[in-house]
Design brief:
The chain is α/β, with parallel strands linked by helices. The protein is built from ten helices and five strands, in the order E-H-H-E-H-H-E-H-E-H-H-E-H-H-H.
Length: 270
């Protein structure tokens, strides 16, 4: 296993110093807390579909573990969403920064798995054409950069999909007897290529999964739990790839480069 999964609460509320209660008698008191950091904790915002929403105990948990006590890793994953529906959420996912809500230090944008539903599917409601996907993905990037003022952006391309297995899983889960595969490997490739092109045009980092995951394992299908969503192996793969990309391309915000948001207890006790 590439890492041990931990149950992590990815979005917590940090109390301000004036909400701290008086310390009980002992060797320390509130008067000793002279080194408390007053500025808001840095934020990493992960925006995506179910591959992000389900990442709490997967790749996102890996990221949160690496950044623990240094920044908040915030899950903004919305199961079933495509880039059109995601665009409607931009004002609340990337609001203008404020004193209490700083601009994201980093954001990941991870869409395409639902946009790539085949248009000839019996229920193609999630489908978005490749051209429309390109333009909506571009709009998300530009909003995150200009309104949300995200300092760094990483676009994650859609991974490969095992259409037959997803069909089998969907029929079993929803008690259907469909025979048409609404997701297909070759069709998803078009969205991966489009995401790569848009990221390049917008000058942001791109993390490619479609080809690399097929080459990384003896059987890439083992990296998925149902043909579409990551199994532990796939989550470990993405978590490792993402941190490797951050360390190599954004070393100034890598976990080892950041200080603890608040002093550790030994500093407070000194």
């Amino acid at each position: 296993s590439l890492f041990v999964l931990h149950k992590v609460h990815l979005h917590c509320t940090v109390s301000s110093t004036n909400q701290l209660t008086e310390a009980k008698p002992g060797n320390s008191s509130m008067a000793d807390l002279q080194r408390v950091q007053q500025s808001p904790i840095p934020r990493v915002v992960c925006f995506g579909d179910s591959l992000t929403q389900r990442g709490c105990e997967g790749w996102l948990g890996h990221l949160a573990h690496a950044y623990q006590a240094k920044c908040d890793v915030i899950n903004r994953g919305f199961s079933g969403y495509n880039t059109v529906w995601a665009s409607a959420l931009l004002p609340v996912v990337y609001p203008p920064p404020s004193t209490q809500l700083p601009a994201p230090m980093l954001t990941t944008i991870f869409f395409g798995a639902n946009d790539a539903v085949r248009p000839e599917s019996p229920n193609p409601v999630q489908h978005v054409s490749v051209e429309s996907y390109r333009e909506h993905l571009r709009g998300i990037i530009q909003h995150a950069r200009t309104v949300g003022q995200a300092k760094h952006i990483i676009v994650i391309g859609p991974p490969p999909v095992d259409g037959p297995r997803w069909l089998e899983h969907s029929n079993r889960q929803f008690m259907r007897k469909d025979t048409f595969e609404n997701r297909e490997l070759g069709h998803t490739r078009l969205y991966s290529e489009a995401a790569c092109a848009v990221a390049s045009e917008e000058g942001v980092l791109f993390l490619e999964l479609f080809e690399s995951m097929q080459l990384a394992f003896d059987d890439w299908r083992s990296a998925f739990s149902d043909g579409l969503h990551f199994a532990d192996l796939g989550n470990a793969y993405l978590g490792k790839r993402l941190l490797t990309l951050i360390r190599s391309q954004l070393p100034e915000i890598s976990p080892k480069s950041l200080s603890l948001w608040q002093p550790d207890w030994q500093t407070q006790a000194a």
